[in-house]
Amino acid sequence: MKGVYVMSRISATSSQTVNVRSLLDEKRSKKLKVRKLENIIPYLLLLCALVSILTTAGILFTLLRETVGFFSEVSIIEFYTGTNWSPWSGDFGVLPLISGTLLITVIATVVAVPLGLMSAIFLSEYASESVRKTIKPILEILAGIPTVVYGFFALTFVTPILQSIIPELSIFNALSGGVVVGIMIVPMVASLSEDAMNAVPNSLREGAYALGGTRLEVAIKVVVPAALSGIIAAVVLAISRAIGETMIVTIAAGATPSLTMNPTDSVQTMTAFIVQAATGDTTFGSIIYYSLYAVGITLFVLTMIMNLLSQYISRKFREEY
Amino acid sequence: MIEMEKQSVNPVKEETASSNIFEVQDLNLWYGDDQALYEINMDIPKYQVTAIIGPSGCGKSTFIKTLNRMVEMVPSVKTTGAINYGDQNIYEEKYRVEDLRMKVGMVFQKPNPFPKSVYENVAYGPKIHGIKDKKTLDQIVERSLRGAAIWDEVKDRLNENAFGLSGGQQQRVCIARALAVEPDVILMDEPTSALDPISTSKVEELIQELKKEYSIVIVTHNMQQAARISDRTGFFLNGELVEYANTNQLFQTPTDKRTEDYITGRFG
Asked: Which of A146, A184, A248, B233 is the most buried (most CB within 10 A)?
């Protein structure tokens, strides 16, 4: 092999023409140093990936440790079955916070799923290319509005409108907060569902149109089912987002933990309690301080269940194409 | 007008004096500013196989898609001229494209079953047109699958996803899907180009069976196939219908020099 290398070098210099082979050999020997770096790169990238994994593990560890501390003082049964949450007077029944969170989430879902899905169907099946290219970025900008702005929008714009329809509505209520959380997650549902529907091959649409299907029939009976796993994933992701939403509900839904499913009532969600307690003058090491972690881990478990559910459902409904 | 509407809802196949299923008159078609079809005049006979041949990009696929107006899936398409189907111009404004496509079925180049079960694939057409009764649907599915010569292969797998079938089987399921709404015409756009030789011959045999009950228009880039299965053949070149004649005549004694060059393999 060395002989060949030398010979090609000679022929290159003697004939005065460019010998690609020898040029490449030359470059390659220079590249040897780079190749060592090449071997290190995967580990570097792995390290970067580990950072986020380790952070998650760290958070989980802290949550668990402090939660264990909390449950040494308050019984876990009392925590998860108690119907009264007034930590400053020693009542640690988390159910009102869970019901508040669920109420907001249900309202948000009821608002976001139809709106988001219909927007997605419009964008993917009806809108022309130019309309889609204009509307989709606008939708995505909507997703970038800070939630604190949504919160004030709920309190100062949506609540007064709702009050003119439902006069007995209090200033702080679950309805307004839930509706605005719903509006906040519409772009997420719409955009992700549209991606899923756009990924449905055109040949399927052609097949359906060729059988005499109308646009609506093709959209609802072929495209949506074919994109269902993606749509469900979008919806569940959006619901997770609604469960974890903090600012809107803190501002608009009030701070009254109550075990209710009445949307006109003021409620407090788990996230809103965490804000309230964490920004107030809670002493480090007090029982209220520990309760933050117990509520936090409950929230974490709830979101995790949602994510697992989405994976299960999307696998079950998947239509391969 | 009222009478025409009656005709279009009448499920019985019309026995008019004309022996043509389609009469294409002075058809021009543009994609945006690019003209793709020039002054096409063509009578397509009933209960026969009409083949469309020509090199890539000659407009043969575009032409076959004008017959069920699938060509309008491209938003910038413009057409002039007329295509008469049972005394009515399908390009008339009032003509409902869904009614047309129910009567003029289509099979595509690449098998495109829906990602559903074999049964649901075939039942899809009847279902969207309002047939809900399970027994009726069962019958339609079986008859259509038998019609497409695939019943024996899939009768035990009706509830499996159609994507699990082989390419040739998928294509025959697609043919069954088209048959399920009992069309008058079946358009086939290079239906065997993605299939292996054995599946191809099965589909070709099937076409011979189908022409007893349906009028068939088939686009093919395979001249032997056109010669084997069709009764009439049209040769397209650069958007023009160069020659249109009985298949034997066109392949043995073409009248146009360009046809002769193409079928003897001098270009394309």
From this structure: A248
Q: How far apart are CA B119 and CA B143, in angstroms?
A: 12
pLDDT digits (tens, 9 = 90+) for A164-180: 998 888 889 999 999 99
Rounded mean pLDDT of B83-103?
Answer: 90
Domain match, A92 and A36 both: no
Closest-CA residue to B80 (of B65, B92, B94, B62): B92
Angstrom distance (rounded) from CA A170 to CA A153? 16
**Residue B25 predicted with pLDDT over 60:** yes
* Domain final residue pick, A36, A54, A71: A71
Q: Rounded distance, CA A104 to CA A122, Å?
A: 27
Burial (CB count <10 Å: 0-12, 13-18, 19+), residue B63: buried
Structure tokens at A142: 């909507």
B194-205 b/e (C-beta count within 10 Å ≥ 16 → b): bbeeebbebbbe
**Range in A280-289, B26-35, B104-113 the model is least confident about:** A280-289
Same structural domain, A27 and A104: no
pTM of the model: 0.79
pLDDT tens by residue, B189-243 = 999 988 889 889 988 999 998 999 999 999 998 889 999 999 999 999 999 999 9
Helix (H, G, I), strand (E, B) or coil at A36: helix
Specify the length of chain B in residues: 268
In B135-191, DSSP assigns E strands to: 185-189
The pLDDT score that the predictor gives to residue A319 is 62
Measure Cα distances from B134 to A88, A268, B131, B141, B180 in Å: 63, 50, 9, 10, 14
- Does A211 sit within 8 Å of B101, measured CB to CB? yes
Residues in chain B closer than 8 A to A207 (CB atoms)? 108, 112-114, 174, 177
Distance from CA of A212 to the nearest CA of B (A): 4
This model of the complex carries an ipTM of 0.85
> Which of the four pLDDT bands, split at 50, 70 and 90, describes residue A15?
low
From the list B128, B153, B127, B150, the residue with the least C-alpha distance to B140 is B127
Model confidence pLDDT, tens digit, residues A227-254: 988 899 899 989 999 999 999 999 998 8
| Cβ proximity of B143 and B120 under 8 Å | no
State residue B268's pLDDT score.
56
CB spacing of A226 vs B98 below 8 angstroms: no
Q: Is A244 on the interface with B (CB under 8 A)?
A: no
Please give the Cα distance from A152 to A136 (Å, whole number). 25
Domain of A249, in residue numbers: 79-317
> In this structure, which amino acid lies at residue A114?
P
Pick B20-263's CATH classification: 3.90.550.10, 3.40.50.1370, 3.40.50.980, 3.40.50.300. 3.40.50.300
Rounded to an integer, what distance in angstroms lies between the CA atom of residue B106 and that of residue B120?
A: 18
